[in-house]
Write a structure and sequence with these properties.
The chain is mainly α. It is built from ten helices and no strands.
């Protein structure tokens, strides 16, 4: 029962489509009708509104952080399930016909909720890859793959399998990005 509640709690937080809500409130329409069609911060950035993209990033991070912290507080044995629920909610929100984002920012929040060393490893990998390549998708996928190892080596080995499942899901959601990376056509952050 606790596991089901943790999954539902994570899903409820994760399924809030902040990118869509913020762009609509700002009068920019439906963010899903432009760029990648995604509700995440990278696609919100394509509206040209950096502040809105930053707010989406922080709120998507928060919706991964909140259920994990709540699980630690009340049912510590269910933290991994709350984490998975948050990612599933973001990527497959019931409110949007199960078509959501790709989970990168929400996973950052999950990692910081698990423990600051896991979050720091995730953030350093993500920001480092982004600085070197300027390719958001590559940075996000690399950070997702690093997360289980970071959990294992920083004192959270019981959560590494949960993060490993997420690390499989995130590249799968980036299939089109991977195809563009192979073709050399994946857009870089800041490019026209």
């Amino acid at each position: 029962m606790d596991i089901a509640l943790a999954l539902l709690l994570g899903y409820a937080f994760g399924s809030i489509p902040f990118g869509l809500i913020l762009t609509r409130l700002a009068g920019l329409g439906d963010v899903r009708q432009q760029g990648s069609g995604n509700i995440g911060a990278t696609n919100v950035l394509r509206t040209g509104n950096k502040a809105l993209a930053g707010a989406t990033l922080l709120l998507d991070l928060a919706k991964g952080l909140a259920p994990v912290l709540l699980a630690w507080q009340y049912f510590p044995e269910t933290v991994g399930f709350a984490a998975q629920g948050a990612i599933l909610g973001h990527c497959f929100p019931v409110w949007l016909g199960f078509k959501g984002g790709k989970g990168v920012a929400t996973l950052a929040g999950v990692c910081f909720g698990i423990g600051w060393p896991v979050g720091a490893a995730y953030a350093v990998t993500w920001l480092g890859m982004l600085a070197v390549t300027r390719i958001s998708s590559l940075a996000g996928m690399t950070a997702a793959v690093i997360a289980p190892a970071a959990a294992w080596f920083t004192g959270f080995p019981e959560l590494a399998p949960h993060l490993a499942l997420i690390a499989v899901l995130i590249p799968w959601l980036h299939r089109a990005n991977i195809a563009r990376l192979r073709a050399g056509t994946e857009p870089k952050v800041g490019a026209k």
